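hey m, so remember when u said the tokens were messed up on ur end? i reran from scratch. heres the input so u can diff it against urs
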Amino acid sequence: MLTNLEHLGLAVRDLAAATDLYTRLLGQPPYKTEHVASEAVDTVFFQVGGSKIELLAGTSPDSAITKFLEKKPEGIHHVAFEVDDIVAEMARLRTEGFTLLNEQPKRGADNKLVCFVHPKSAGGVLVELCQSIS
């Protein structure tokens, strides 16, 4: 079951400029930066109440974020929801007819297991499932 809006993922071209902009906008610095080699992205996280904003910048031409920004402007890339049991939620969504972009959960940023739901089966929105790793 989806338990919480975990974060909004924002694709950006210039991570330093976007970090400065959101630091000023939110009135606080990010709490974490992280390189996710498996996704070829650098991330910056801001806490906003009970949710987060994740800035994502591609680090290679093959990065999904780099490819996204070749076709679209900077902005919302995905919506992420927290789940208690990502494997069970993946099975439930498959049963409901959703197309998943991952066969198995994979390690993502911010100490999470993640899986993505294809936008074509989710009303045009890339949805990320996140489960905290203990």
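this time it looks ok to me. Helices lie at 15-26, 64-71, 86-95. if urs says something different then somethings off w ur setup not the seq
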